[in-house]
Amino acid sequence: MQFGVFDHLDWNGGDLTLQYEDRLRMIEALDRNGFYAYHVAEHHCTPSGRAPSPSVFLAAVAQRTRRLRFGPLVYALSMHHPLRVFEEVCMLDQMSGGRFELGVGRGISPIENGFYGVAAENTDKIYREALAVIMMALTSKQVNFDGDIYKFDNVPIEMKPVQRPHPPLWVGVAHAASAVWPAVNGANLVSSGTNAEVRQVTDRYRAEWRGSPTAMPLIGMSRHLVVADTESEAHGIARRCYVRWLTSILHLWNAAGKAPPNLRFPIDYDEAASRGYCIAGTPSQVRDAVIRDITESGINYFLCRFAFGDMTREESMRSVELFAREVMPAAMPAKAAA
After folding, report:
1. Which of 40, 186, 169, 158 is nearest to 90 (CA)?
2. pLDDT of amino acid 338
């Protein structure tokens, strides 16, 4: 069982320079406290993402940490040239001594894709071709590729990552059927939803996995999480920050007068908490909830969202401190129910 952190790096409403520094200090605390990895989302033209170039922010993470692994979750490949992504992957893996985790996807927001001139109906094909090119570059001395979107003829490959044949792959998965590709290809995955919904994903992954159970990749689930000295304090922080976070998530959709088609997160905080999307409480309450989630969902990787909305650095750091000291040691041995 491993524990990591997922971060939208959504705008907290204050000074962005200070927000970056606050987040890097929190990431340093993750490094000190034995978390496995830090994952950052990629979003564009919206307050829900202040790391539109994940590689730029992660270059700072590489220099501010020593053990913590890190990566995008995910690079929105429909908005990037695959050779540029490959080169940045190699740089970040080299700069960190082989701690990079490569998350890939097509880009979840058709509105954001549209700003980049990418039609929603083309994102899947672009993603698949871009990923094929990136994997070829990571494992070959030349790139020769003849696709509908990308065509390369004898492109020389000069860069290589530290991790061979390539850094670990990560994908986001919403439904059980989508767990087949990562299981067959040995990729790690992260899902979201209720424990029962995520359990469908983890069960399908295990059913398709053909390797040794002891070598199984990480199968993760994320939760908004606040740990405080009292239950009322924790819920007060979580309620305030969840509303701010969700407002940022819905910003582009509200501006366009549309509803997001695949939003799983409840609009109401109390519903989000009752369905398990948010965990807030004292260390003992959070510990019990985390162990329950691990057992019911079948995950082997628990992703905490310690910083969201307008949460202060002090509030995030207190959650990290209490979680690492009083929750992680008790939850590490937890296993999924058969």
Report:
1. 158
2. 61
